[in-house]
């Protein structure tokens, strides 16, 4: 950064760009307390959510039965794509799964898309306003990705109990894969590991990929002269577009798959 007080060495530059603006920096908690919140991740995730709601709501209000405009056609393609994925995987009846899948896909895609903004663009403007730290990619924050995966996890439990009942869900945890009372403790351990691994892998996969992508952009900006940064940043950005889409798609597909498995009545 070229602003006053900006980190001078590459190590300081990288450390600065990997630091979140949280409640400790604004004086609301002390010494990184348990209830500390990354304000930048919360702000940009909510902002992307509002952009998603505003965009789709405005298209829905202006939708025409005739030849659609370019934006309406684009939104309809996304909805049809998500709806087709849900119909192929989830064979039960639910008014929640398709809207949830659409929300997950578009929201995560928009949050991932923030990674294509030059690493110094928004943080430099924020520093001019007196904001010391600012990270703009919410999905590069493990708190955001794990919060989303925990939401999916609670829905898995809800669907399991709703479809199978508490007794049926308990049997699923204790009588599989070995259908004998003597193996109930072993079955419970195996099934709990399988159940808990779903939200953990879901959240960490998204976080790991986006954190790595953001880190590469920061390394390019911090270690290379400005005149040569585009030689690596532009090719990486073009490749990163694929990662941005794939990670949103994978999160959506796994969400549908996990809910479909939870809705299966054995």
Automatic annotation (TrEMBL):
Where does this chain mainly localize? membrane
Show the InterPro entries listed in the entry. Answer: ATP_syn_F0_a_bact/chloroplast (IPR045082), ATP_synth_F0_asu (IPR000568), ATP_synth_F0_asu_AS (IPR023011), F0_ATP_A_sf (IPR035908)
Its annotated compartments are: Cell membrane; Membrane
Q: Does the keyword Protein biosynthesis apply?
A: no
Q: Which Pfam families match?
A: ATP-synt_A
Topology class, membrane: Multi-pass membrane protein
Q: Which UniProt keywords apply?
A: ATP synthesis, Cell inner membrane, Cell membrane, CF(0), Hydrogen ion transport, Ion transport, Membrane, Transmembrane, Transmembrane helix, Transport
What CDD domains does this protein map onto?
ATP-synt_Fo_a_6
Enumerate the transmembrane spans.
42-60, 95-114, 142-161, 210-231, 237-260
Give the protein's biological function: Key component of the proton channel; it plays a direct role in the translocation of protons across the membrane.
- What family does this chain come from, according to its entry? Belongs to the ATPase A chain family.
Task: Name the chain's protein.
Answer: ATP synthase subunit a
């Amino acid at each position: 950064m070229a602003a006053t007080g900006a980190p001078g060495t590459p190590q300081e530059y990288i450390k600065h760009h990997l630091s979140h603006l949280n409640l400790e920096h604004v004086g609301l908690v002390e010494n990184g307390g348990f209830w500390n919140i990354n304000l930048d991740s919360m702000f940009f995730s909510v902002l992307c959510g509002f952009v998603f709601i505003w965009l789709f709501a405005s298209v829905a209000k202006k939708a025409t039965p005739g030849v659609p405009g370019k934006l309406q056609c684009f939104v309809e393609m996304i909805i049809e794509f998500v709806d087709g994925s849900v119909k192929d995987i989830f064979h039960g009846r639910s008014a929640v799964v398709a809207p949830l899948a659409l929300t997950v896909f578009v929201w995560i895609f928009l949050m991932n898309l923030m990674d294509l903004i030059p690493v110094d663009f928004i943080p430099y403007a924020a520093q001019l306003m007196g904001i010391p730290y600012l990270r703009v990619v919410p999905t590069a924050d493990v708190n955001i990705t794990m919060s989303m995966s925990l939401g999916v996890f609670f829905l898995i439990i809800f669907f399991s109990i709703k479809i199978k009942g508490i007794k049926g869900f308990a049997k699923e945890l204790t009588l599989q894969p070995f259908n004998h009372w003597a193996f109930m403790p072993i079955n419970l351990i195996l099934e709990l590991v399988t159940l808990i691994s779903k939200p953990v892998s879901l959240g960490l996969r998204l976080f790991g990929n986006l954190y790595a992508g953001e880190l590469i952009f920061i390394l390019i900006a911090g270690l290379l002269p400005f005149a040569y940064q585009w030689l690596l940043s532009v090719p990486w950005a073009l490749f990163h577009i694929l990662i941005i889409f794939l990670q949103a798609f994978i999160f959506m597909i796994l969400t549908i798959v996990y809910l479909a498995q939870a809705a299966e009545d054995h």
